[in-house]
Amino acid sequence: MRTDTPQTIYRKDYTPPTYLVDTVELGFDLDPERTIVASRLVMVRNPDSVRNGIELHGVNLQLVALRMNGRLLHAGDYDISGDILRIPAAPDDVTLEIETLTAPVKNTTLNGLYVSNGNFFTQCEAEGFRSITYFPDRPDVMAKFTVMLRADKSKYPVLLSNGNLVEEGDLGDGRHYAKWEDPFKKPSYLFALVAAKLVCQEETFRLKDGRNALLQVWVEDGNLDKTDYAMQSLKNSIRWDEERFGLELDLDRFMIVAVSDFNMGAMENKGLNIFNTKFVLANPRVATDVDYAGIEAVVGHEYFHNWTGNRVTCRDWFQLSLKEGLTVFRDQEFSADMIGTDTGRAVTRIEQVRTLRQAQFPEDAGPMAHPVRPDSFVEINNFYTVTVYEKGAEVVRMYQTLLGRDGFRKGMDLYFERHDEQAVECDDFRAAMADANGRDLAQFERWYSQAGTPVVTATGRYDAAAGTFELTLSQSCPATPGQPSKLPFHIPVALGLLGADGKDLALIVDGANAGTTAVLELMKPKQTFRFTGVKEEPTPSILRDFSAPVVLNYPYTDAQLLHLFSHDSDPVNRWEAGQRLAMARLLKMTAAVGAGDKLALDDTFIDAMRKILADESLDSAFRENALLLPSESMVAEQMEVVDPQAIHLARQAMRKTIGSALRKDLLAQYEANQTPGEYSPDAISAGKRGLKNLALAYLSAAPDDAIYALAQRQFDLAGNMTDRVAALTALIHSAAPGAADALERFYAEFDNEALVIDKWFAIQAAAPVTDVAAVRALMRHPAFNLKNPNRARSLLFNFCNGNPAQFHAPDGSGYAFWAEQVTTLDALNPQVASRLARSMDRWRRYAPALQAQMKQALQKVSGSGKLSSDVGEVVSKALT
Ligand code: 0A1
Ligand code: ZN
After folding, report:
1. What are phi and psi of 769, to 5 degrees?
2. EC number(s) for this protein (predicted)?
C-alpha cells in the first residue's frame, strides 16, 4: 500500500465504530481483469459510538454505485479522503448497496483478491478486505456473511467461501454460481473466497458430540499424493482441542486450500483456511522431517484459531497477540502432546527457546522493538512479528506456569464464557485468568506493555553450618524505543538444586516441602529466596523449562555447567548448560581470530560432547540438540562489536575440531541412527535422522575421501528428502568433488516440484561458498521468480539472514544487493519487501567500517522515492 504521508496510529486513540453491521451480502462476478463486487450491508448506528456518520474503508477501488436505503448517493452525499469513505448524514438504520470494480490479475501484493496460477484467492488479514469492497474493515465490526460467487465454469470449477454451501448451479452462459452462508458473525479479516481449478482429499469425521463434519484439503491437480499428512494433522487437531480444552468444531464443513503464492504461512479464515503450499504438501520424496513438523504445527495453529481468534476475536490490531500468542501457545502444546514423551516435549521446548533467542531477543533489542501489545504502528502488517507471536506465546505459557495446567484451563473456560462472539482485549484474557483462579495478576500486565528482554541476575550463597542456600534474584530491563525505563516484571523462575551425585535435592522453602522444582515468583527489583535443610553445596538449575523469556546471568563455573550438562533432570536446562559451555568457547575463539591468535578447543569440552553423543539412554533428538552449536547470528548477539567473518571462521574451526576429534564416535552414531524401511515422520525416527545428519555435518567439516564418499552414498541412496537434503548440504558445504554434479541431478529430478526447487535455492543461498555474485547468478536462473514469496525467501532471505559471512562482505556488496532487492520487491509486494528490509535491523552493532556501509544502504532505500508504508516504517525506524 502506497501512501504519501505515513500516519502513526496509536492504541490510545481507539474509538468504537460509528455503525455496526448486522448482515453482509456479497456478490462476486469473477474475472481476472474486471471483477465486479456488489455488496449489501444492513447497518445500525452503534449506541456506544462517540462520533457520527458512516465510515467505510476502501483502497484502490473503483466505485461504480453507492445507494443508501435505496437512494443513489451523489458526490455531495459522501466524501472519500485517503482510505475512508464518509457518509456524514445517515439515519440509525441503514442499508447500503455498493458496487465496485477491481482487477485481481494486476494485484501482485497477494493482499485482498488476487490471482495465483490462474486461480482466485483472497487474503484479508489484517486490512485486505478494504481492497475488495468498501466496508468498516476493523475487527470489532462482526457481521453475518452470505456470499454469491459467479465465474466461468471450465476455468473455475471450484467455488468456495466461508461456512456452508447453500446453493449452486449453472448460469447458462458457460458460467456457474455457488452461494455460501457463514452461520457465525465474523470480522471482515476472516472473509475468504477461492475460485479455482483444484481437486480435494475429503473425509467425514465424527466430532465428540456425535455430529459429522466434512473435512477437505484442496490442492492443484497432481498434488493429491501429498495431502495425507495435512489431513491427519487436521483430525489430530480437532481431537486435541476437544480433549485438552473442551473446544469443538462449530461448523459442518472445514476446508484447507493450498496456494503457491502466499505472503505468510497460512490464514484462519472461518471454515476456509488458506495455506501456503509449504504447510500442506508432503510426502517422503519431497518433504523433510522439519517440513512435516511445520505442517502439523501450522494446520494445528490455524484450526485452533477457530476458537482463539475467530469465536473470540481482537478489538483492534494492537491486541493481535491476544489471538496469536495464545494460538501459538496452543499449537506448541499440541505438537508436544503429539510426541507424548517427556524428552520429546523437552525437545520441542528447546526448539522454541532457540527461535526466541535467535529471532525474538534480537528484535526486542533492536529498532523495531515493541511490546507484545504495541502502543503504535504505521503499518500493521509489520507487526506480525516474533514478539507478538513467540514472545506472546511465552507470556501465555507463564500463566500456565504460575497457575498450573488446571488453573490455566479454568481461565480459558472463563474467557470463553465471558467473551464468546466478542472482540476483546489482552486485558480481558488476563482478567479471566486472574478471576478464575482468585489471583492478582496486575503486575503481570507489564509483559504486555513493556518491550525489551528482561535480564535476571542470580547469585547463590550456601551456608554449610546452617544448611541453607540463598538465591538472590534481581531484574532489570534495557531501554527500548519510546521506553527509556521499565518497572519490574512478574517473573516465574522455576528452580531445582542438584547434589554432587547429580540428583535433585528436596526443596524446603519457608518450612514447606516444595518438591524438586519450585516456581519462585520474582516481582521486585531484587528478592532473596531461602532454602533450608540443604545438606551439601548445591548446583542451582535456574529457569527450568525456560520458565520465562528472560536472559539469565549466573556466575556458573565450567565445572558446574559440566555437572548440569551431565545430570540435570530438566532436559531444557541440561541442554542450556551445554549451550553456555559452547558459547563461551565460540566467543573466545572469535576473539582469537580477531587477534590473530591460534585457535584451540579444550579437551574437557570435547569429552563432554563425546559423552552426550554416545549416551544411548538419551533420545537421539535430545542428543542432536545438545550437540548443535549456537548459530553465528546467536554469537553475534553476544558481541559488543560484531565481526561476522571472525565468528564464521571460529565456528567453522570449532566444527572442524569436533568433526576430527570425535570422528570415530560420530561414525558410530551415524551407523546406529540409520532408519531403514519405510519412512515415518514420527519424532523417534526424525530424531534419529537428525542426529545421524548432524554427525554427517560434523564429519563433513573435517572431510577426507571417506567422508566425501559417505555423503555421496547417502545422497545417491537416500529414500527420503530429509536424508537427501542433509547429504546435499554436506557435499556443498565441504566443497566435495561431487557437489556440483549432485546439485545438477537434484534439480533435474525435482524440476516440477516447486517446494523442492525452493530447497535447491535455499541450500545454495546459505552455503559459505556462495557470495553476492553467485546469488545474482542464481537470480538469473529460469526457475527464479521474485514475485513468488517462497522463491524470493528461499534465495534472498536465506542469503541475507542465513549467510552472514558473505552478506556482510567487507566491500559492502551484500548491502548494495539488499538495497536493490528491497526496492525492487517493494514495487511488487510491500509485505515481503518489508520482511527483507528487517535484515538490516542490527546494523549499529557491527564494526565501524561495515556500519557505515549498512547505513548508506538503508539511506538509499529510504530515499528511493515512492516507498510503501511497510518498508518506509522499517527503514525509518532503523535509521532513527
Ligand atoms: N493470522 C495468520 C497469519 C497471517 C497474517 C497476515 C497475513 O497476510 C498479511 C496472512 C496470514 C496466522 O497467524 O496464521
Ligand atoms: Zn495465527
Report:
1. -80, -10
2. 3.4.11.2
CB atoms within 10 A of CB 716: 12
CA pair distance 387, 412, nearest whole angstrom: 22
Nearest to 352 by CA among 399, 280, 297: 297
Do 138 and 20 touch, CB atoms closer than 8 A?
no
Residue whose entry in the numeric block shows the C-alpha cell 533420545? 619
Residue type at position 380: I
Which contiguous run of DSSP H or E holds residue 179?
strand 175-181
Please say if 302 is a catalytic residue: yes
Longest dimension (CA), the chain: 94
pLDDT in tens, 45-90: 999 998 999 999 999 999 999 999 999 999 999 999 999 999 999 9
The residue behind cell 476458537 is: 307
Q: Say how many Å lie between the CA of residue 265 and the centre of ligand 1.
A: 7
Query: CA torsion sign, 776 to 781 to 782 to 787?
Result: negative
The closest-lying atom of ligand 1 relative to the alpha carbon of residue 298 is 14
Q: Is the pTM for the entire model greater than 0.95?
A: yes
61 Cβ inside 6 Å of ligand 1 = no
DSSP assignment string, 526-550: EEEEEE----SPPEEEESGGG-SSS
CA 479 to chain CA mean position, Å: 25
What is the SS3 assignment for 693-711?
HHHHHHHHHCCCHHHHHHH
Cell of 537: 553445596
From the list 125, 268, 296, 302, the catalytic residue is 302
Q: Residue 263: CB within 6 Å of ligand 1?
A: yes
> How far apart (Å, rounded) are the C-alpha atoms in residues 622 and 625?
5
Residue with the smallest CA separation from ligand 1 atom 5 is 125
Cα 486 off chain centre by: 27
Cell of 398: 507463564
Q: How far is CA 238 from the centre of its chain?
A: 21
* Residue 100 host element (H or E): strand 93-102
Q: Which segments of 379-445 does DSSP mark as H helices, in order?
A: 386, 392-419, 426-437
Residues 6+ apart with CB under 8 A from 645: 805, 808, 810
What was the ipTM of the complex prediction? 0.98
What digits encode the pLDDT tens for the residues 473-503? 999 999 999 999 999 999 999 999 999 999 9
| Ligand 1 atom at shortest distance from the alpha carbon of 309 | 1
Starting from the CA of residue 298, give the closest ligand. Answer: 1
Residue ranges in 492-643 assigned as alpha helix (H): 558-567, 571-595, 603-614, 620-627, 632-638
**How far apart are alpha carbons 328 and 315 in whole angstroms?**
19
Reduce the DSSP state of residue 594 to 3 states and report it: helix
Q: Residue 633 and residue 10: Cα distance in Å, rounded? A: 33
Distance CA 583, CA 242 (A): 42
Cell matching residue 120: 482466485
Answer whether 131 contacts ligand 1 (Cβ < 6 A).
no
Report the phi/psi class of residue 283: left, alpha or beta, with left for phi > 0 and alpha for psi in -120 to 50: beta
Q: How far apart are CA 152 and CA 155, in angstroms?
A: 6
Give 26's contacts (C-beta < 8 A, 6+ positions apart): 37, 38, 39, 133, 145, 146, 147, 148, 191
Cβ-based neighbours of 669, under 8 Å, separated by 6 or more: 613, 614, 623, 691, 692, 695
How far, in Å, CA of 394 to CA of 411, rounded?
Answer: 16
